[in-house]
Amino acid sequence: MTQATKSRAAKEQVTLEFPDNALVAALSGAHQKNLVRIEQKLGVRVAMRGNLVAIEGAPEARKRAAAVLRALYARIETGEEAGTAEVDAEIRFAIREPAQLPGRDFGAPTIKTASARVTRARSPAQGAYLDLMRTHPLVFGVGPAGTGKTYLAAAFGAHLLYERHVERLILSRPALEAGERLGFLPGDIREKIDPYLRPLYDALFDVLGEQCVKLMENGTIEVAPLAFMRGRTLSRAFVILDEAQNCSSAQMKMFLTRLGEDARMVVTGDPSQSDLPGGAASGLNEALDILSGVEGVAVARFSDKDVVRHPLVTRIVRAYDKARE
């Protein structure tokens, strides 16, 4: 192929036609910021005229941009918003490795968490995480902060409740002081513990909205410290253990053996952020080694590429990883 031919190929364009002009306007975003984002991330040029969107660039880049625009339009058709976070999520899926989510043409995998609420995966790793939770009774979600491990587990638990595959949703985490002393906090034991469980409450309320209060009042949803799990058998429930890197080996074994009839369990944690005193061994790392290859157990691993918080969080995670290396 001559240089001139290559140049022409690079400048070729594809035109997408969408049925609703009003939705196309929402697709482009305020001041066409969504189109600008796609141009910056995928190295293409995007022009909109009426219900037509033209994409110019290299063949693979055009294909990816088209997949992103179709996925975003599908979101808007269902009444969802299409902001910067949604654009970035669809771009992650468009540039994924083919092996990461085989069989999907475009778009993020979704789960229904309530009659009017849908939660979507925001990265290929999150999509794979959802698939593992669907097919395995015990899943470990391991990786840095901001990758959606806990949030997506809570959303999947809410989905199972909504579909009536389980009767209860139980969330737990160790009430371990990260450089602070629990005993010096004011109030009774519940008031002391609640701040440690707040991230779980936040995830539940974000996923379920006002329904969450009613479900917690009638015991369908339970949020409790890890110590309160001892001696129980958790049947017909979806159980989440968060911040598992702060579990001792004994605590981890105790928790994993709570699994009862028709129950499922997800364990999430970031091995790089253990608060265990005196350099004690993390029960999470030990469990990952011991249970490797055990039937019914799966591990979803996240990296800094999967961080879905502020873009600066990705750079912070990478900087700390580099310093540790």
Rounded mean pLDDT is 83
| CATH-level-2 architecture of the largest domain | 3-Layer(aba) Sandwich
* Secondary-structure element order, N to C: HEHHEEHHEEHEHEHHEEHEHEH
Going by CATH, the homologous superfamily of the largest domain would be P-loop containing nucleotide triphosphate hydrolases
Q: Give the distance, in angstroms, between the N- and C-terminal Cα atoms.
A: 44 Å
Quickly count the domains: 2
The total of helices stands at: 12
Name the CATH class of the largest domain. Answer: Alpha Beta
The CATH topology assignment of the largest domain is: Rossmann fold
Low confidence ranges: 97-106, 177-182
Task: Indicate the structural class.
Answer: alpha/beta
Number of strands: 11
Verbal overview:
The protein has 325 residues and is an alpha/beta fold. The chain folds into two domains: 3-94, 2-Layer Sandwich (Ribosomal Protein S8, Chain: A, domain 1); 110-324, P-loop containing nucleotide triphosphate hydrolases (Rossmann fold). The chain has twelve helices and eleven strands. Strands 8-7-9-10-6-11 form a six-stranded parallel beta sheet. A three-stranded antiparallel beta sheet has the order 1-3-2. Strand 4 (110-114) and strand 5 form a beta hairpin. Helix 2 crosses helix 4.
Q: Helices and strands in order, then pairings?
A:
Elements: H1 3-11, E1 13-17, H2 21-28, H3 33-42, E2 45-49, E3 52-56, H4 59-77, H5 84-94, E4 110-114, E5 117-120, H6 124-135, E6 138-142, H7 149-162, E7 168-173, H8 189-208, H9 211-217, E8 221-225, E9 237-241, H10 249-256, E10 264-269, H11 283-290, E11 297-301, H12 311-324
Parallel strand pairs: 6-10, 6-11, 7-8, 7-9, 9-10
Antiparallel strand pairs: 1-3, 2-3, 4-5
Helix pairs in contact: 2-4, 3-5, 4-5, 6-7, 7-8, 10-11
